[in-house]
Design brief:
This protein has 406 residues and is mostly helical. The protein folds into two domains: 17-196, MFS general substrate transporter like domains (Growth Hormone, Chain: A, Up-down Bundle), CATH 1.20.1250; 212-400, MFS general substrate transporter like domains (Growth Hormone, Chain: A, Up-down Bundle). 80% of the residues lie in helices and 0% in strands. The protein has 14 helices and no strands. It has helices spanning 17-46, 52-76, 79-99, 106-133, 140-177, 179-192, 211-217, 220-233, 240-254, 256-288, 290-310, 315-343, 349-377, 380-400. The longest helix is centred in the middle third of the chain and has 38 residues, at 140-177. The protein starts with 16 loop residues before the first helix and ends in a 6-residue tail after the last helix.
């Protein structure tokens, strides 16, 4: 059982200045770097980069980001470092994304994206720890749901803006434009997000001195919870594979071009559903308990995968399946972190968030590779079966794990 955290009297409103600032930072940061990500393949092609370059850039960046999340967790256990670390992380993502505009080769893009993703990864635990402190313990679901909704809204607006601006500004012009939302994100965090508050009139507690002692203080309940999260994670493949499968299903009837356009539209719908469902999922978790609701969210993912397994979907069925996938993502992202916040002692909450993010990062890496291999070597159905099995296993393990939800 995690130790209780004494807290001063906070406003009963969950949408505090800090929650708003962190939400706006997530919105604008994703708006900027998702705009760059949307045109990155075309930009690399303009540099004469081989097809493998995009895979190398994304793989190296995601790997470094996972390690940065773990290191960022250790930093986040030092309260005085949380706010500066997050601000620097937002600035790093903004500046390096802007820097793509001046790259003359794909290795330069690799270096810039790697540094940017390290900043993005390292800021996460500090941001999540500060977000937890911005609200009363019973309001964490709403706070994390709001942050997730703003983050996903940015992921929708980024590609839409990139598409709208591309004809006017060109590839490098769009990349230069990303500096505006990127710096807005850093400023929103700097101006609105609070430093770690004082607890019971004293300075916020410092975490244990060594890495080993920090891990030792993570509650047993939390480790059991992480097993369920990781089991789900190694089946939770990248949503771009849903776009690929929809294209494959629709192409024989509609042609490659129209199928691709509809598939992108379906993914945009997925992101809108994700954004719309995130806050309600977190708020409902605050009311009825997060553990069971998170397990239900995982099962919704199983339902989405099953739709691809048992029939060749029509466009209306694909709309339902992409919507279910969006609900699954909203429940996962809103509830995993808010439940972790309730299970973790304040002194090692940053480390706990870092471990959670790293476990999810490793899970994403494994799942995308395994599902892709099964898809190629066996069949798409084999990939969806694998994903469904581990999503269901994660639901069982998370629901059956023991812990205290305050």
């Amino acid at each position: 059982m995690s130790e209780p955290v004494p807290t001063p009297s906070l406003s009963k409103r969950w949408l505090t200045r800090g929650v708003l600032g962190i939400g706006l930072a997530s919105l604008f940061s994703d708006w900027g770097h998702e705009a760059a990500t949307a045109i990155l393949p075309a930009f690399l092609a303009s540099l004469g980069a081989p097809a493998v370059a995009l895979g190398v850039i994304e793989g190296v960046s995601d790997g470094l980001s996972s390690f940065a999340k773990l290191a960022g967790g250790f930093v986040a256990d030092r309260p005085r470092w949380r706010r500066p670390t997050a601000i620097v992380g937002y600035f790093a993502t903004a500046i390096t994304t802007f820097g793509y505009a001046f790259a003359q080769s794909w290795p330069a893009v690799l270096v810039l994206r790697a540094f940017g993703w390290m900043g993005r990864g390292s800021r996460g635990p500090s941001r999540d720890t500060l977000l937890t402190e911005c609200v009363e313990p019973g309001q964490t679901g709403r706070a994390f749901g709001f942050e997730r909704a703003m983050d996903t809204l940015g992921a929708v607006l980024g590609p839409l803006c990139a598409t709208a601006l591309l004809g006017v500004l060109g590839l490098r012009g769009v990349l230069r434009w990303t500096l505006l939302p990127g710096l807005t994100a850093a400023l929103a965090f700097a101006l609105l997000a609070p430093a770690s508050r004082k607890i019971a009139g004293n300075k916020a507690p410092e975490g244990p001195a060594t890495i080993a002692s920090r891990f030792a203080q993570l509650p047993r309940d939390y480790w059991r919870y992480l097993v369920g999260v990781f089991a789900h994670g190694i089946g939770d493949f990248a949503p771009t594979l849903l776009i690929l499968r929809a294209s494959q299903i629709l192409a024989p009837r509609l042609g490659v071009g129209r199928a691709a356009a509809i598939s992108v539209g379906l993914y945009t719908f997925h992101n809108f559903v994700d954004a719309a469902a995130s806050y309600p999922a977190g708020a409902l978790g605050d009311r009825i308990g997060k553990r069971g609701l998170l397990a239900i969210g995982y099962i919704v993912g199983v339902m989405s995968y099953a739709g691809f397994i048992f029939e060749q979907p029509t466009i209306p069925v694909l709309v339902v399946l992409f919507g279910l996938a969006g609900i699954h993502d909203a429940f996962q992202q809103s509830l995993e972190k808010s439940l972790a916040a309730e299970l973790l002692p304040a002194s090692v909450r940053g480390t706990g968030f870092g471990v959670l993010a790293t476990a999810n990062g490793i899970g994403d890496f494994v799942s995308s590779i395994v599902v892709g291999a099964l898809w190629t070597l066996v069949s798409p159905t084999a990939g969806f079966v694998y994903a469904g099995i581990f999503a269901a296993l994660g639901a069982v393990l998370v629901y059956s794990s023991r812990g205290s939800e305050r």
